[in-house]
Target: Diacylglycerol kinase
Amino acid sequence: MTSSSRRVVVAINPAASFGLGSEVGPALVTTLRGLGHEVTSLTEPDFAQLLDATRAALREKPDALVVGGGDGMVNLGVTALEGTRIPLGIVPSGTGNDMARGLSIPIGDTEAAITALTAALHRPPRVIDAGRIAFDGGRARFACILAAGFDALVNERANRMRWPRGRSRYTIALLIELARLRPIEYRLTLDGVEHVERALLVAVANNLSFGGGMKVAPDASLDDGLFDVVLVRPLGRLAFLRIYPRVFAGTHVTDSRVVVHRAREVRIEAAGVVAYADGERIAPLPVDIHMQEGSLRVLA
Model:
């Protein structure tokens, strides 16, 4: 190895064996090796095995962990890196890519993303925050947004559906949940202060967007040591459909029925709701969320 080369672990999305993301992993590994970096490439049949393999590889203390995929792969990286100072690199190739979007990493252009990554390998990493989730039976970590409301209900329904496959399954799940739209009774504890709320959605945001660019928390910052806790209070179906498109521009927060709190410690309680973070299923509520300020290093 030369003084400019790095030891890099590359974890590749196990679901990206076909489609648009199938070429990202090989291109990433080939480019890094071509530049003289020592690369350990990890491919496993599922996320659980890939997480185990990544944790094992990180015990060798490489210079960086790079993930190829979407926000689920970012979540795997964030989880594996807990308690280390190893930086995380991202080459986005998923459907959402909201973490890459929040870090201004090129999206939809693999070559540009790899070029940005290789340049970042030679700079000090950016230090950002992450969130720790505790729930009955376990714990988890996230870097983007934890959601527990309408969007989580849509995810939960779509995950139970066996037909159709692909994105249309989520569209059908959304229409079903929209027809069943009703407020959820929440008990929120924000930095020790209890709030009882009826709301359609609660999002605990470290990053500004989820769902492929929906700016649910447009003023959130990745490195301010605080979560933006966004609540959407009860709306009728027509009002919900009117406000929904505004989320992509982040202008929904000007509506009086959208409330934003800031907190370091958040507890969410509600019956029949499952929390999702970085697009991944976490656990049924209640969950306790703790801000891990400055705990994540990223190559961005």
About this structure: The chain has two domains: 7-123, 134-294. Helices lie at 24-34, 47-58, 71-80, 98-102, 110-120, 150-160, 168-179, 237-243. The mean pLDDT is 90. The longest helix spans residues 47-58.
